[in-house]
Structure formats: structure tokens, C-alpha cells
Specification:
alpha+beta, Phosphorylase Kinase, domain 1, Aminoglycoside 3'-phosphotransferase, Chain: A, domain 2, two-stranded antiparallel ribbon, 10 helices, NH2Glyco/OHUrea_AB-resist_kin
């Protein structure tokens, strides 16, 4: 019997796709036959895909990932990003069947947080891994842009705020929305690069050569600050100076510090509200408490809050 994590089951049922759970064993079995795979242990930690260890007939260690129906489009973007990266900075894509929402990936080792204990050191290493992925990608490539994500989040944040019982201050949401407006207007297709979209400790794994690679790319055409902002969001429990963290990343990469800070603000609030909604705790509450503290102490941005996004109080 296939070991399907509860988090995946809950996501599929909540999406109204419970029938897919009955189909999944036959999908995995057919992929195993067609790709000559031996399926191993289920890997846990996510909720938008069934993920399991797999071994090819020649002994190659791999990972089988089958996305839930509602994430099928996102899996297409992930496959595009992995093809463009071609194993540089991201796990290699070995085989794909996008119609069935399936990817076969290079199997990597331990997460960077289990190998490198110092958070500040990890942040710089994560930055270097992400930078390996950044390469020019034109509008002819079917990937969402940073501007697209800014528009998506601008619609999403007020709704999440209400659905979570106003889990942070209104000023915090307003600040994030103002940052979203600035980053949307700053997007430039001519300077956009391929970015990962979610660089954090558990998405950076050790490779066979001792280096590190990313897994689970969102796949976007955006400014590099989008990725660096996710590193500013990371580890909300260590109590360091986040302005200093953003400045170190800026100095290390030459990327604008304000852009990094603004994407960090966006990722902190959006991830906090979403984590609160799905019960991913204490991460969600830690992010929102940090966001409220930053808003109260310095208006959440080196530029200060600007504009009034007009959150509907209804």
C-alpha cells in the first residue's frame, strides 16, 4: 500500500480532488514500470506532491515527485526551471511526464541546516547556491514574472489576513502591499533572470560532490532580489538584525539592498499568513511576530511605509 502523507491527503481533499488519492497508486505503479524504477520510502515535509525515494535499473538513486492536481501548473514551471538549470544549482531533472504531473529527480543528501550549524554562514552559502541558478531568461519562456507574483500576492494577502482572523497588524499588511506595488513597478523583462523562488534551509541539500543544490524551484523570471528576500525571511527564531542580514547579502551579490529588504518583507508576511492558515506552526506565528515588530519599530522598510493600499475592512 502506498504511504501517502496526511499533509498531502488533506491538501487534495481540501481542493476537492479526493478521487486522485485512489488513482495515485496506479500512477506511481505505471511510472515505475515505464521508467524501470524501484520505489522506496515516502519522503515527508511537503503537501503539494507525493514524493518518494526511487532507484533506477542501473542503480541511480533518484526521487519520484508526483504533484497534486491543483499544483499541476506549478509543476510545469518547476520542470521548465530544472531544464534551464540543467543540474547547475538545482537537482538534475532525469525524466518527466508533465501530463501525469511526474518528475524524476537527482537524489540529494542532507539539508544544509543539518550540515552547517551557523545560520549566518548558511545564509551566505544559500546565496551562492541561488546565484548559480540566476541566468537571463526571456519572455518567450513560459514562466511567471516577479510582477505576476506581486499582483498575485496583492490579491492574496488581504484575503489571507481576514481568513486568519487578522493574525498580524493592519500596518504590517499595508507595508507588505506597498512593497509589492514597488516591486511590481520595478520589474524589467530585459533584466529578469531565472530565480528559484523559495530559498530556505530545507530546500538546499548536499550533493554527492560535497557542495549544495536547490530542490523544488518555483521557476520565475524576476530580479535576483526575489531569491535573496527569501533568505532574509529565513530562520525567524535566531534574533539577528535583519537589516544587517539584507545589507550583507547586498554587499555579497551587488544586488540592491532596498529591493532585497522589500522582497523579504513580502515573503515574511505572505509566508506567515499562509503558514498560519494551514497550521504550519510555530513558523507562521514567528514570522508574523517578527513582521509586526519590524513594522512597529521602523515601519518595516528602510524607505518607511508609503501609500495606502486600502484594505477592505469588510
Amino acid at each position: 500500500m502506498l504511504d501517502i502523507p496526511d499533509e498531502v491527503r488533506n491538501k487534495v481533499v481540501a481542493d476537492g480532488n479526493a478521487g486522485w488519492l485512489d488513482e495515485l497508486p496506479s500512477i506511481v505503479e505505471s511510472l515505475a514500470q515505464e521508467w524501470s524504477l524501484t520505489i522506496g520510502a515516502t519522503l515527508r515535509g511537503g503537501h503539494v506532491a507525493f514524493v518518494a525515494e526511487a532507484t533506477l535499473a542501473d542503480g541511480t538513486a533518484s526521487v519520484l515527485k508526483v504533484g497534486v492536481p491543483s499544483a499541476r501548473r506549478d509543476l510545469t514551471f518547476e520542470a521548465t526551471a530544472l531544464r534551464l538549470a540543467d543540474g547547475d544549482g538545482c537537482a538534475s531533472l532525469l525524466l518527466e511526464d508533465v501530463d501525469r504531473g511526474a518528475l524524476l529527480l537527482e537524489r540529494l543528501g542532507a539539508a544544509i541546516c543539518d550540515v552547517v550549524p551557523d545560520p549566518a554562514t548558511r545564509h551566505m552559502m544559500m546565496c551562492d547556491v541561488a546565484a548559480r541558478l540566476w541566468r537571463p531568461v526571456g519572455p518567450d519562456i513560459d514562466l511567471p514574472t516577479g510582477a505576476d507574483k506581486a499582483r498575485e500576492y496583492s490579491d492574496l494577502l488581504p484575503r489571507l489576513w481576514k481568513e486568519t482572523g487578522r493574525a498580524c497588524s493592519e500596518a504590517t499588511v499595508e507595508d507588505a502591499l506597498a512593497c509589492l506595488d514597488r516591486r511590481r513597478r520595478a520589474h524589467d523583462d530585459r533584466r529578469a533572470v531565472l530565480v528559484h523562488g523559495d530559498v530556505h534551509d530545507l530546500n538546499v541539500l548536499q550533493a554527492a560532490d560535497g557542495g549544495f543544490k536547490l530542490i523544488d524551484p518555483s521557476g520565475l523570471r524576476a530580479e535576483p532580489a526575489y531569491d535573496l528576500g527569501t533568505i532574509v525571511r529565513a530562520n525567524p527564531d535566531i534574533g539577528d538584525d535583519l537589516h544587517a542580514r539584507a545589507k550583507r547579502l547586498a554587499a555579497h551579490t551587488g544586488v540592491d539592498a532596498t529591493a532585497i529588504w522589500e522582497w523579504g518583507t513580502i515573503h515574511r508576511v505572505s509566508s506567515g499568513l499562509y503558514s498560519r492558515q494551514i497550521g504550519f506552526q510555530p513558523f507562521g506565528d514567528l514570522l508574523l511576530a517578527e513582521a509586526d515588530r519590524l513594522t512597529a519599530s521602523s515601519h518595516g522598510s528602510p524607505l518607511g511605509r508609503s501609500g495606502d493600499p486600502g484594505i477592505d475592512q469588510g
